[in-house]
Structure formats: structure tokens, C-alpha cells
Amino acid sequence: MSEQTKNVPVLEADHLGISFGGLKAVSDFNMTLGKNELVGLIGPNGAGKTTVFNLLTGVYAPTEGLLTINGVPAHGKNTDQIVRMGVARTFQNIRLFKNLTVLDNVLVACSLSMHYSMLEAAFRLPRYWKEEKKARSKAMELLKVFHLEDCADWKADNLPYGKQRKLEIARAMATNPSLLLLDEPAAGMNPTETQELMDTIRLLREKFDITILLIEHDMNLVLGICEKIYVLDYGKLIACGDPQTVINDPKVITAYLGAEEEGGETK
Amino acid sequence: MTKKTAFSYGINLLAVLILFFVLLLLNQQGIVNKYVLGIMTLICINIILAVSLNVTTGCLGQIALGHAGFMSAGAYTAAIFTQAGVIPGVGGYFAGLLLGGLVAAIIGIIIGLPALRLRGDYLAIITLAFGEIIRVIIENMTITGGAQGLKGIKKLSAMGVSLFGMNEDFSAFAIVFFLMVISVVVMYTMMVSRHGRAILAIREDDIASEAAGVNNTYYRTLAFTISAFFAGIAGGMYAHYIGILGAKSFDFNKSIEILITVVLGGLGSFTGSVVSAIALTSLPELLRQFSDYRMLVYSIVLILVMIFKPSGLMGTKEFSLTRLFGGRKNKSSQKGSDTQ
Amino acid sequence: MDALLQFLRQLINGLQSGSIYALVALGYTMVYGIVKLINFAHGDIIMIGAYCALFFITLLSGAGLPVWLCVIPAMVFCALLGMLCERVAYRPLRHSPRISSLITAIGISLLLQNGAQLIFSPNPQSVPKIFSAEALTFGSFSISLGAIITIVVSIAIMAGLQTFVKGTRMGKAMRAVSEDDGASKLVGINVNSTIQLTFAIGSALAAIGSVLYISAYPQVQPTMGSLLGLKAFVAAVLGGIGIIPGAMIGGLIMGIFESLTKAYISSQLSDAVVFGILIIVLLVKPSGILGKNTKEKV
After folding, report:
1. Given an 8 Å threshold on Cβ–Cβ distance, is A80 in contact with B210?
2. pTM score
3. Residues 186-205 of B with CB under 8 A from A
4. Is residue B116 within 8 Å of residue B216, measured between CB atoms?
5. Residue A68 domain-assigned (yes or no)
6. 12-31 in B: which are within 8 Å (CB) of C?
7. What is the CATH number of the domain that holds A241?
8. pLDDT tens track for A218-238
């Protein structure tokens, strides 16, 4: 990112909202993410967290409000366009290209930075080889970050669960994002794996200088690594701030009533 | 290009040449006669048809039931072009094929752009509908000869081509054979590239592919168009092999026949489609006395394959000479290196 | 006045063939609703039903009984055939990818069609009259008995089926299975027999459709089912697949459109018009006239 754009927020959501046939799933959602921040989005089940992700990534077109990514208006754009603008994501229920190899999973996402035409590929002209080689080494490097380099030739479906989650993050990273959205990255992980994941997330932020927004139910993870937390309930933001303030906020406690006050909700 | 890929390119090229020269030798010995050459020409055409449908159905993962429509568009275009005699001789043949492919591809885009918003069953049905509409239109146009069909198309073997002293019939076959090889190789190399990976990614999970930056609409249409283009080429080759065209021969049943070939070969497997096209074209010729039972047997085989081995003959795998000769060490290179 | 009479006549024709489409479309819709499968073989079941009916017409007229009774054995036979197809070909594939079951359905269709060609020869056979040639006459305008029976019967069946699905235990089981077969099993519904019943009803309706069809177009041949089936399928999609009243609406619209095209535009293009309608519906509202739009959950 150039000097000039340094102070432009990576993502700005301004009164974003969506209704499905009269039902307001998310409304009046405001969020500003600065460069290199690590932010959590929490809320009870059904609060609309994933819907927010879907709004930010163009899966749903917002019915109200504005979305700006790196200073460029992004509302109404398609998912792949938003990816090009620098927002990558993972999914709550892992979505890999199951029958492709681990390496190919990452290479699909590398495609954005590969430059050769269909005809160059058809006749295997030099640029094809050059670009493929470049992309392959970039993909392998990414796999190394996630300790997946030894399974590069495996079918993605054959990876153990924890590695599938990692591969999904690796694939997202291959699009060169400036903002990474993680949807419950620790779901289904045991405490050791979660700990490992926290290290990886921190590492990602430092190594690639990106902003990370994550949805998570595991409060240990959220409180452990996030500098700022947004709390969503019934499609509305009810709190936002640093972790300690947020978890002591009476509104948040009420929203989580039934679960333990201090991040007991595990899933 | 690494040593490994160079080796595999070499070995496959060698295999193609050996096959060709064996056929040439057999032809000169009189074992491969005109009748057999005819069947082999049909095999080549059916290979292109099957492999091209495999791009849509195997790689993109969408059933298309209107492939014969693209084939007929190419067939009529090429035939009308050579009949007009703009470019005489075999040059006109090649130009006609290319034009046929382009017309089919354009129709592919026109159909694909709206139709590919649909998925699965609905897409299958809408391609069926488009295929039938193409047929009805051809039947009702005068330039295509209407319901009577288009007669007197100059056959390739009658164009007076003689390559390297080979006889006319074998020269015609040689042209078809190498066109087939080039078509299959080009479709394969297209699919083992960033474009092909995007198409496979859509097949695997179209929500995830978009999130990985793939423009789904573009690549869906691309796969469909490539598929249509080569079906059009195959159609043009068919027109100049058979010499007479009737819209009835490009109906729903023809589309189904191509689909059966692809499914039996294994959805997504290029070599599977090739093997299956060879088998399904030559077997009926070998078993002529049972020709009444052909479709019956096809249908039973189709059902049994779906129940017991839905992945078809080859699954999504490719038969690889490199693996056969290159030892077991590189067995993980199935997708990584360009073997076929 | 003549023009108006002519138009009315075409309208009645359209309603008659539309009613047949509707009956056949019900079979598509019910099967699609419950197992999400386009049963390509449904059209060929009609064909088998027609041959079966033809066989019994000869027997019945020999015994001096009313020939329309042939509908009963045809229904039984088709119902059994439908159940057989389900048991042998579709059930093993119920949880495999949609593409596999679709291809299997195409396979069954080819099997029935080519089997019929071997058994009955590919040549068309003509069918004796099923309903008497009487007609209701209003001045210079008349409606044939066949047309009236066709329209009335199919409306009655549609209403009956709707009551069955909404009101009875079996009907509720059907709706439950179409929502979620796993959960249905948990609440004690026999999923397999419910699906079998659906196939049986759908195929029996196809048999009724086939008898009404050969009463209007007195000819049977092995390929008669494919185009009829396809048109009925278009009708089902048009009305909203999976929705019973949708099949009726779709069928009637299709029939009227087709008969008006044949009369006023071109009989050669009528098939193209049918497919044109399908394309437009799929592009504009794939869920059909009565359908609801659904989007995949991310």
C-alpha cells in the first residue's frame, strides 16, 4: 500500500444493513477497520455475524448503507470483485475444493496474480511456464507457513480437520488480501489446536501486514488475540471497544444471559 | 519446462506417432481398408465430441443435454461454407471447420450467458430445450435444406488431398486424426492451467471459488464456449465425412449418446472419454448383428455403471504413459505435471 | 363470429391436451418434490401405460365390456412399474450426487423406450375409439365427450390429490419426507415406502394420462412418451415444480399455448414455442409461477 493511502481505513461499513423479505437481519452496522488491526466480532447464535461477513464480501448485496474497501466504494460488487479489492474470507463450515490437491486449492486463488491467456496455456507458450512456476513457488511458500507443504499433493478432502481449516486460510491468503475475514476459525478444535491457531493468526498479521476480522465463539481466543471487539445481537451492534470494556458492558452480559458472563460460551 | 514434463510430452507425442504409423502400415498392407478407415474417422469425431462435452460435464460439473445442437451448428456452417466454394479444396475445409467452431462457440455464449445462471437439473433441461430449438430452426431454414437435409457436401476424401504419397482415403483420415489429437491436447492443456483450475474450482464449490477470486460467470461461460467450439469443429468434420446432413440426426438422442460416452469414461477424465469413445464407436460395428439391441445394452450399462461405479471407467483420473514408463516414483504428479 | 368459434374450439383443444399435460406433470412434480429427481423415465411410463391400455382394450371389447375400463389395469401396471424403477434404479442412488441419479433416469428412459421397440416394434399401432363420438352441441358449437371427460377427470384428480397430500397421514408423511428424509425417519415415518407410494401414484396418474391421450390421438408407438413427457415436464416447471396446483396451471397454460400456436402461427414451430416458453420461465423465474425463490445458504 502506498504512503498516500496509509491512513485510509482498510474497511469502512457505514450504516450497512440487509433485510430478507421484511425481516431485518442486520441493520445500522458501522465498522471501521484500520491497517494491521486484529478485531473480533462476537455475539450470541443467530445474531447475524455470518450475515455481516456475507455483506462485507458481496455474497449478499446490502439493502442499505455504504461499504468502502481501501477507500473504494464496494457495495453491490460481486464476491470475486471484492476479493480483487483485497478482502478474503474463510467459511464457518469449511468449503474446500475437495477433489483438488492441496496445492491446486491454493493455486486457484493465486490465479488473480497470474498473467497468461488461454491461448498461451493451450499451446504452452513460455509465459505459461514462467507464470505457473512463479505461482507454484508462491503457493508452496504459503503452504509452508501453515505446515502443509508435505501434503501438497494430497486431495484436500483427505486432510485431517485441523489442516483443512488451515488450508482454507492459506487459500484466502493466496489472493493477497489486505483484510482477512475468518468465520469461526477455531470451531471444532481442541485447546492445543486452538492455541496453535492463535499463533498462526498472530504470525499472519505480522508476516503479511494484514488486517484480520474474526468471528469466534471461543472467548479465550477472542480475548487472547483481539485488540478490539464488536458485539452483535439481533442484527445490531450493541457494543464495541477493547476486550475488557466490552465483556464488562451490561448490555453484552444481558445479550449473553444464559451463558457464563466471562466468555463461557464454548461450542 | 521441467525434465519430467518434457519427458511426458515426448513420450505422449511418440505414442501418437507410433499409433499413426502402425495404422499407415496396416493401411498399406491392406488390413485397414476403406471401411475400417471410415470407422476410425468416426471414432476421431466422437472422441472430440466426448472430450468437448467432458469440459462442461466433467470439469465444470454441469450436465448439458444439447451438445448435438452445437455439433449441428458447426456441421451446417462448415458444409454451407465449403459448398459456397469461397476457398477451394482442403483450405476451404479447414476454414469451414474453424468457422463452424466459431459459430457453435457464439451460439454457446448466447445460450450460456443466460442458461448458466441455472444449475444442475435446470441447466440440463434448458440445454435440452436450446438443443431442440436449434434443431427446429435448422429444419425450418432454406439455407440448411430444411427437413430434406443438406445433400452433396464434398467429402474430405474426395478433395484430392494426397499427403506424402499416401492414398486419398488415408490422407483424409490422417487430417482427421491429427485434428483430433490437436483438439484433445488443446482442451487438455487449457484445463491444466489457471483457467482450467478455476473451472474445476467452480465444480467443487461455487461459493468458495468466488471467495477465492474466481469470476464464476466468466469461467462457466468459458467452459461452455470451449465445449461448444470443439463440438462445432467435430460437426464440421462429420459433415465432410458423411456428405449429407439431416437435422434429425442431431436430436436429443445424439446428445444423450455423447453424454453416455463421457459418463462411461468417467466424468472429468480426458483419457476416459477417449477410451470410451473408441469403445462405443467400434463395438456396435463389431457387433452389427446385435444392432437392434445396441441402445438397450447402452441403457442397461449406463444404469449399472451409475449404481455400481458412478465415477465411470476412469473416475476423474487420467491414464498416463509417463506413469507407466516413468516408474512409480512420480505417482503423485497426476495433476502437477502435464501428463497424458 | 366464425373467428370466435374457431378460437373457442382451439381453446377447448388446448384445455384438453393441457389437462393431459397436467396429469403427467403431477407425476413429475410429486417425484421431484420428494426425491429432487427429474424422472426422465416418466414420459416412457406413459408410453408403457398406453400399450397396456391398448392390450386391455382388445380384451375388453372382446368381452363386451366398456373399453374405458382399460384404465384400471393400466394404472396398476404403471404403478408397479414406477415402484420397480424406484426400487431397482433410484433407491441405490438416493444419496449420490444429483448428476448420477439424473443420468440413471435417462438410462431408465432409454431402457423402456428401446425395450418397447423390441417388444412392440417401432411402428405405430392405431387404437380403437375409447369414448363414443357423442358431443355436446350449443348451436354451431360442439364439445366432444372425450374433451369433457379429459378436463373433468383431471380437475377432479388434481383436487383429490391436493386433499390427499394436505389431509391424510400418508400425504403428510410425503410432505415431511420431501422436507427432510432424515428427520422423517426420526419421527417414525417409513421413508422408503413413502417414496414408493409417491412413485406409484405418479405412475398411476401417468396411466390415466396415457388413456386420455390415446383417446384424443388414437395411436401408440415406443417414442410417443418422450415429447409428451418433455412437454409435461415443461408444464411442471412452468407451474413451479414440487407444487401440485402448479402442475395443473402449468399444464393448462402449455396446452392452450400449444394449440393456439398450431392454429395461428405454425404447426412446425409449435415444439419450438413450447421449449421457448420453458427457456423464458427458467430465465425469468426458475421456481415457476407458484414457486418461491430460495438461495443457497452460505
Report:
1. yes
2. 0.87
3. 186, 189-190, 193-198, 200-201, 204-205
4. no
5. yes
6. none
7. 3.40.50.300
8. 888 888 899 999 999 888 888
